[in-house]
């Protein structure tokens, strides 16, 4: 089995990011981003991208940004074929470490209510700080709430 690598990346990795995006998010929930949204976000001041690779293939990614002393995990996705191997946890750890190095005091993210990733975020000590009703809208017109989670940044190692 190939070793899992988490790497800093840029917009040149969007083909791999979009392939994971397509497989990771069920369209019924309305969570996936378009290529344009990903590319535009990476142009924002303070934004960054990490990719996870197994055997050279992109199997996950995290898009984040920092504004002043607050870092936001804007998107994290893991290819279904790579789930259960610690990819999401490693991406989340790398996000937190990068945020700490960039001066963040607090981390936050939004996630769809009912998303299985809530277990990952709970294990990483994120706690609920807000809720947006009917935030996500799927192709079928159904809506789901967005939960805002946050935690303090640990000192960099």
* Largest sheet features: 7 strands, mixed
Query: Order of SSEs, N→C?
Result: EHHEEEHEHEE
The CATH superfamily is identified as: Gcn5-related N-acetyltransferase (GNAT)
Structural class given helices, strands, pairing?
alpha+beta
- Unreliable residue runs: none
Quick one: CATH class? Alpha Beta
Distance between the termini: 28 Å
Give the number of DSSP strands: 7
The average pLDDT score comes to 93
CATH architecture: 3-Layer(aba) Sandwich
- Our estimate of the beta-strand percent is 35-45%
What would the principal axes of the Cα set say about the shape? globular
Topology:
Layout lengths: L3 E6 L4 H11 L10 H8 L4 E8 L2 E11 L2 E9 L8 H15 L4 E7 L4 H7 L3 E11 L5 E10 L5
Parallel strand pairs: 4-5
Antiparallel strand pairs: 1-2, 2-3, 3-4, 5-7, 6-7
Any descriptors?
157 residues, alpha+beta, Aminopeptidase, 7-stranded mixed beta sheet
Tell me what you see in this structure.
With about 160 residues, this protein is α+β, with helices and mostly antiparallel strands. The protein has one domain (about 5-150): Gcn5-related N-acetyltransferase (GNAT) (Aminopeptidase, 3-Layer(aba) Sandwich). It contains 4 helices and 7 strands. It has helices spanning about 15-25, 35-40, 85-100, 115-125, and strands at about 5-10, 45-55, 55-65, 70-80, 105-110, 125-135, 145-150. It has a 7-stranded mixed beta sheet with strand order 1-2-3-4-5-7-6, sandwiched between helices. It is globular. The mean pLDDT is about 95.
Brief synopsis:
The protein has helices at 14-24, 35-42, 87-101, 117-123; strands at residues 4-9, 47-54, 57-67, 70-78, 106-112, 127-137, 143-152. With 157 residues, it is an alpha+beta fold.
């Amino acid at each position: 089995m190939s070793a899992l690598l988490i790497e800093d990346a840029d917009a040149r990795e969007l083909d791999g990011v979009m392939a994971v995006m397509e497989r990771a998010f069920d369209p019924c929930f309305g969570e996936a981003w378009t290529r344009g949204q990903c590319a535009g976000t990476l142009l924002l001041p303070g934004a960054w991208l990490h990719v996870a690779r197994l055997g050279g293939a992109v199997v996950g990614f995290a898009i984040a940004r920092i504004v002043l002393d607050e870092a936001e995990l804007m998107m994290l996705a893991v290819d279904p074929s790579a789930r259960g191997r610690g990819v999401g946890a490693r991406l989340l750890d790398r996000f937190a470490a990068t945020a700490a190095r960039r001066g963040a005091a607090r981390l936050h993210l939004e996630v769809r209510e009912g998303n299985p990733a809530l277990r990952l975020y709970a294990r990483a000590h994120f706690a609920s700080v807000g809720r947006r009703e009917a935030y996500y809208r799927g192709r079928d017109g159904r809506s789901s709430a967005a939960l805002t989670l946050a935690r303090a940044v640990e000192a960099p190692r």
